[in-house]
Amino acid sequence: MTTSFSPRLSQQVQRLRPSSTIAVTSRALEMQRAGIDVLSMAAGEPDFDTPAHVVRAAKAAIDAGKTRYTQVQGIPELREAIAAKLLRENGLHYTPDQVTVGNGGKQSLFNTFFALLDPGDEVLIPAPYWVSYPEMVRFAGGMPVAVPTRPEDGYALDVEALRAAITPRTKLIVLNSPGNPTGAVFPEATLRSVGELAQEHNLFIVTDEMYEHIIYGQQHVSVARFAPEHTLTVNGASKAYAMTGWRIGYAAGPLPVIRAMNAIQGQSTSNASSVSQWAAATAIADSREFIEMARGQFQQRRDRIVAGLNALGLPTPTPDGAFYVLADTTRIHPDELEATRIILDEAKVAVVPGTDFLAPGRVRLSYATSLETIDAVLERLRLL
Ligand SMILES: Cc1ncc(COP(=O)(O)O)c(C=O)c1O
């Protein structure tokens, strides 16, 4: 049957921007399907398997019939494990009621912005930033406002620049340390000042601490320590315990915000997968050995890729956390989209252009790959 009818999509969805990350990944996949040997440095996930003790917990949960709907905010055992973790590792005091579990940190952030934003509310986001923040903010009716940071300062956050960006419409500040894509880690003094700024101006901080355990020679500090009533801490199982496919994220903060997020989730996805929740409870309770192993490997890879890229005339600052580097590719082409295309077509390496992150002239490489792959990538880039 043919018809000329075409459903009218919402204005809202038409405003969503297609991600350039996905564009590159699909092009690289097409090339791979055509038999071309493409090395991907585009992944946003650890390349390790989920630790065995976590997998065993999931299997035990299935065998015990833990396969039904759970409480919207998550099983009490997981929320207790999260509250205990936040106290043990971050020095934060939350009751399990102040914790809500979502389908990945992504859903927790989505619920957060929908719980907090009214049309026109401004949200300050240090840039370069993870591309989903401005998209989610816009989708929820808010206005993302980028607060630039500079590669020559190691992408340090300038609190005075943040202060200068505040207007009567400002409602939220988004922090992400260690950051994607910069790998920058904000020091305690900066976080303390942001906490004070939030208190002074009655603002609320949304802090995404997804990469807290992937950090090199620095101490992760939670901004909620300095302004607990003004902060929602978002975290998850994806990056710390190599659990991206299990889809477990969480948020902890003031009860009214958590309740609002629960109300949104109750009318959307209901709850995160029951089996994944049991697995995450085990992961969060104790995975020190895995975390140490992963951090050691990531650090070796970071050192190898940073040294290699700089030696190739692609200036790359050394990040203190996460598993990404931002390389200056202006030597290949001043426009990062064009540089990305050249790197893919000529070197057969998939990277992500800095365009959507607000990192012009740079591309992001993820080093969540083996040292052998990193060496092979550097060898290919040598030809450009
Ligand atoms: C900064 C940041 N926050 C949140 C997420 C979302 O992670 P997930 O939804 O897998 O928990 C990601 C994933 O790439 C990320 O890079």
What coarse outline follows from CA principal-axis ratios? globular
**Helix/sheet category:** alpha/beta
Bound molecules: pyridoxal-5'-phosphate
Structure annotation, total helices: 13
Averaged pLDDT, please?
96
How many β-strand runs? 12
Strand composition percent: 5-15%
Low-confidence stretches: none
Q: Please give the largest β-sheet.
A: 7 strands, mixed
Give the SSE string: HHEHHEHEHEHEHEEEHHHEHEEEH
Order of the strands making up the biggest sheet: 2-8-7-6-5-3-4
The whole-angstrom Rg is: 21 Å
Q: How helix-rich are the residues, as a percent range? A: 40-55%
- From the N-terminal CA to the C-terminal CA, the straight-line distance is 51 Å
Keywords, please?
alpha/beta, 3-stranded antiparallel beta sheet, binds pyridoxal-5'-phosphate
Describe the structure.
With about 375 residues, the chain is α/β, with parallel strands linked by helices. It has helices spanning about 10-15, 20-35, 50-65, 75-90, 105-115, 130-140, 160-165, 190-200, 255-265, 275-285, 290-310, 335-345, 370-380; strands at about 40, 100, 120-125, 145-150, 170-175, 205-210, 230-235, 250, 325-330, 350, 350-355, 360-365. The strands form three sheets. A seven-stranded mixed sheet has the order 2-8-7-6-5-3-4, with helices on both faces. Strand 5 (about 170-175), helix 8 (about 190-200) and strand 6 (about 205-210) form a beta-alpha-beta unit. The radius of gyration is 21 Å and the shape is globular. The termini are far apart. The mean pLDDT is about 95. Pyridoxal-5'-phosphate binds near residues 104, 105, 180, 236 and 238.
